[in-house]
Write a structure and sequence with these properties.
The chain has 7 helices and 26 strands. By secondary structure, it is of the alpha+beta class. Among the domains are: 53 residues; 93 residues, Elongation Factor Tu (Ef-tu), domain 3 (Beta Barrel), CATH 2.40.30; 128 residues, no CATH class. 21% of the residues are buried.
Length: 488
């Protein structure tokens, strides 16, 4: 028994010694660690109090999703759309943002494709582009008719599209009236010759007057000069007489055939002089102030690539088309080689010649509301402010800004429709809740089963209801769900 008692005593002594060593080592370690913070480290912090100044923490009011104006939470997480919630700080509410200003974080800006451009002073000149149709110069369009009835004995110009020169023979016409007139002329000519030997001056003068009257009758019937001369020299009545073209041009219409009986009221040919052509084009109502008679114009045609035709405005019609709400403008273009053909389409550019230096932004940045024009100005840090602007001249994709945006300011040129929707929604929420910067929609108490994903109010916390014993930002579990969190 004594041996066993000795062994027990020895075991107890070794165990006690080991515990003492461990307690002593722990006390030394703890003392050394504490000395670092309370001793040398504290002295170092006291010696350099300004080395690491404490950063002022910004107070977070709530977490929200910019794309869901009526959703807010008291803690970070995911929105019902699956987007990461971003914090709303107290100093954001204190900033004097303009009414309707929208804040968008950088990630959301990339997702919706926000692009901006700078308003700059640019030199603009009004350029109007339209589509024109080539047509005949109406002042050089002629209709050929006979002044006496008769039969067409022979056609010299027997097809449309033929070019005719001035005094070209078109056809030969047999007319009893022309035969009678020739006979009267020859009688008057012979009578005048017989009176030349008369001693009475009045008798000779009477013969001359009779001849002149007969000659005048032939001329009024458009008998050509060369045939009158032949009739005078040969003194023989001709069966047919010629009808000549009085103009230079192209036969665009022919309503006569050989052997046909014609009357004075019939149009035999239509001849158009294509040395100059007209181009009719429509311009919009708002472009009327920039168009005036005599302005220079350039036309290009797809059928004649690589070539430009230069003309000018000769007439602006005094009325608008009631259907298209446009005014018709007439241009005149030289056409010496007949390259421009009636009914061709061409792209017409009008240079107003008026240039001025103005503040201008891309035209795509402007939202037209009907009564006004709106742009969104980038104020930095994700803030976009809506502004009403007055616009002026438009040219080459830019619009003059008379007032509303200053030179050097950035404006949104894409995704402004989404920003505008967010701005209007925020403004509406602000009016409903009585805050210009917007607050939580539905802050009053609601039944727990009406808004899953929103807080169950128990006491107010920064404008949000806090649950009594559940996680903030989630509804209390309904009875019988075994404590499951609604919204998870």
């Amino acid at each position: 028994m004594s041996g066993e008692s000795g062994k027990n005593y020895t075991f107890k002594f070794v165990l006690t010694l080991a515990l003492a060593v461990m307690i002593g080592a722990g006390y030394v370690y703890r003392h050394s660690i504490m000395s670092v913070f309370t001793g040398s480290h504290a002295e170092k912090m006291a010696a350099t109090p300004e080395a690491t100044p404490a950063k002022k923490e910004r107070k977070i009011l709530y977490w929200h999703d910019p794309m869901l104006a009526d959703f807010r939470s008291d803690k970070p997480g995911k929105s019902p759309m699956g987007m990461d919630l971003i914090p709303k700080y107290a100093d954001d509410e204190n900033e004097a943002d303009a009414k309707g200003t929208v804040r968008i974080d950088s990630a959301a800006m990339q997702n919706i494709g926000v692009r901006t451009d700078v308003a700059r002073t640019r030199t603009l000149s009004k350029t109007i582009r339209t589509v024109g149709v080539v047509t005949y110069d109406e002042t050089k369009l002629s209709k050929i008719q006979s002044k006496v009835p008769g039969w067409v004995e022979k056609l010299y110009v027997n097809a449309t599209g033929l070019n005719v020169a001035n005094d070209t023979i078109l056809l030969e016409l047999y007319s009893p009236d022309l035969v009678t007139t020739q006979e009267e002329y020859l009688l008057a000519l012979n009578y005048r010759d017989s009176l030349k030997q008369s001693a009475s001056e009045s008798v000779v003068k009477g013969g001359e007057q009779l001849l002149a009257s007969s000659l005048r009758r032939l001329e009024l019937f458009d008998v050509p000069r060369h045939q009158i001369e032949e009739l005078t020299s040969e003194r023989k009545v001709k069966k047919t007489l010629h009808i000549h073209s009085p103009v230079v041009g192209v036969v665009v219409k022919k309503d006569v055939t050989q052997g046909m009986y014609i009357e004075p009221n019939m149009t035999l040919y239509e001849i158009a002089d294509l040395s100059t052509v007209w181009v009719n084009a429509d311009i919009f109502e708002y472009e009327i102030p920039y168009v005036r008679q005599g302005q220079h114009a350039v036309m290009t045609l797809g059928s004649i690539p690589g070539r430009q035709f230069e003309g000018r405005i000769t007439y602006i019609y005094p009325y608008l088309d009631p259907q298209s709400r446009s005014v018709k403008v007439r241009f005149e273009f030289p056409n010496p080689k007949h390259s421009l053909k009636p009914e061709m389409y061409g792209d017409v550019t009008i240079h107003s010649g008026d240039t001025k230096s103005v503040v201008a932004i891309p035209s795509e940045a402007i939202l037209r509301t009907g009564l006004s024009a709106l742009v969104f100005v980038d104020r930095g840090e994700g803030r976009f402010e809506p502004r009403e602007v007055k616009t002026g001249m438009q040219s080459e994709g830019f619009t003059e800004i008379i007032s509303g945006v200053a030179d050097g300011e950035k404006v949104v040129v894409s995704a402004q429709f989404l920003i505008d929707s967010e701005s209007k929604l925020k403004e509406a929420v602000g009016k409903m809740t009585g805050h210009d910067h917007g607050s939580m929609v539905g802050a009053e108490k609601k039944p727990s089963n009406e808004h899953k994903g929103h807080t169950q109010p128990a006491d107010e916390h920064a404008g949000h209801a806090m649950p009594a014993d559940e996680h903030a930002g989630h509804t209390a579990p309904p009875a019988g769900d075994g404590g499951a969190h609604a919204g998870h």
